[in-house]
């Protein structure tokens, strides 16, 4: 059973890497970047948050140990460049939805890895948030845009909710798989609702 869970988490991690890389590709395509720009945005979006997380918890960055992640990024970048050349324009919500799905996967995986290194639940939630948002922040800054996490959109809040749902479910005695499902569904529901209903947090001003 443990091996099954480990393989599932690994598969989801690779899938999340591809989804986040794709969001980087879509951003680069929107800005009409060249192939190098596409690969750079895909890479920082996909592995930026996980790299920061690993350095903070004292782990060797995951993509150095397993270069499969780099191949997934390169493959996604190549496929994404082909898709963006199709004459049909992608709907406006393609990038936000791809980002939301990657967010749900990475927050859970980030929190799970932090817990495996003996952190507290609170730290695990923080590591989940960093895993989910840091790569996108780097992507947006390279694209000269204000990162979503710094805007009034419900973005980091959704990550925090997802992390709390995951660690809270484990504390209640639920297994890893139900906890992951609850967290991902909760985060996705909140983020997608915010995207389509334009929900936002109140802003602070002097």
From TrEMBL:
Residue ranges constituting the Glycine transporter domain according to the UniProt record: 12-84, 97-167
Pfam families the UniProt entry points to: Gly_transporter (PF03458)
Membrane topology value: Multi-pass membrane protein
InterPro entries: Gly_transporter
Subcellular location: Cell membrane
Key words, A-Z: Cell membrane, Membrane, Transmembrane, Transmembrane helix
TM region positions: 7-29, 35-56, 68-86, 92-111, 123-142, 154-174
Record keyword NAD present: no
Assigned protein family: Belongs to the UPF0126 family.
Protein name from the UniProt record: Trimeric intracellular cation channel family protein
Taxon lineage: Bacteria, Pseudomonadati, Pseudomonadota, Gammaproteobacteria, Aeromonadales
């Amino acid at each position: 059973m443990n091996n099954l869970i480990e393989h599932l988490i690994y598969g989801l991690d690779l899938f999340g890497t591809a989804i986040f890389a794709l969001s980087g590709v879509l951003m680069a395509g929107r800005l009409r970047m060249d192939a190098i720009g596409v690969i750079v945005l895909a890479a920082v979006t996909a592995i930026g948050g996980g790299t920061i997380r690993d350095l903070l918890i004292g782990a060797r960055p995951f993509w150095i140990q397993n270069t499969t992640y780099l191949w997934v990024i390169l493959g996604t970048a190549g496929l994404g460049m082909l898709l963006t050349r199709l004459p049909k324009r992608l709907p406006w919500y393609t990038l936000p939805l791809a980002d939301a799905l990657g967010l749900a996967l990475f927050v859970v995986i980030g929190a799970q890895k932090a817990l495996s290194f003996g952190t507290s639940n609170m730290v695990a939630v923080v590591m989940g948030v960093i895993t989910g948002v840091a790569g996108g922040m780097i992507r947006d800054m390279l694209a000269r845009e204000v990162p979503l996490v710094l805007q009034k959109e419900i973005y980091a809040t959704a990550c925090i909710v997802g992390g709390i749902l995951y660690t809270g479910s484990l504390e209640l005695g639920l297994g890893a798989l139900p906890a992951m499902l609850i967290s991902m569904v909760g985060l996705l529901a909140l983020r997608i609702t915010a995207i389509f209903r334009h929900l936002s947090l109140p802003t602070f001003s002097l």
